[in-house]
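hey m, so remember when u said the tokens were messed up on ur end? i reran from scratch. heres the input so u can diff it against urs
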Amino acid sequence: MRRPVVGVIGSAYRIENRFQTQMVGERNLRALAEVTGALPLMFAASPDITDVGALLDTVDGILLTGARANVHPKHFRAEAGPKHEPYDLHRDELALILSEVCVARGVPLFGICRGLQEMNVAFGGSLHPEIRELPGRMNHRMPRLENGEIHPDPKVVFADRHEVRLIPDGAFAKLLGCEMIRVNSLHGQGILEPGERVVVEGIAEDGTIEAIRIADAPGFALGVQWHAEYDPQRNPVNRTLFEAFGEALRTHMSAP
């Protein structure tokens, strides 16, 4: 049997502030190859050159990765401002459509960080540009040095920083066999109001939504706010999620 193919969405990136490119973090690619057993295939987050129907005829699942850019507030009826920047409008347009189509067609969909946020917005939810500014919330952004620079040690940046309580008997609790996990935290924007079909599956100790699923989806349709791609080769929580995604890929691939 052939290996399942997973489409991995690209993100806009400018080299030397001149050359427009698209990129995918290598950890996402390795997580898919080494844990799910899939062949990762990056696709352009540009709706004018990526046809959703043709893409889903080619791949067996979709991974919506994290990214620096925030989802533009126009997609959830909010005013744009400096706190929301930077943006990736082309990725917004493609990812929101793709989220809906994947769920409708039963194509396995896994959203990580920005991917979770895209899934929420696709189903009518809203986001807040700086979760840490809400009353009682912690700073969910990545650790920095005193001079403001990002901490140079990835082990510090991606270290588990807070707990997430999973909904009893929910999809995540059943997959992981527990109701409390610890995760990393590298985001500013987060879910404010869940979308109509978005089921909250996990909540951080400060009330931030950390895990979701799409109700009545015929296939795998889960999202996490933390960066599960960092260490699924070793982290039992993230490994279980990627393995479950892999099983969903093979089930979808073998369906008549």
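this time it looks ok to me. The CA atoms of residues 43 and 54 lie 11 Å apart. if urs says something different then somethings off w ur setup not the seq
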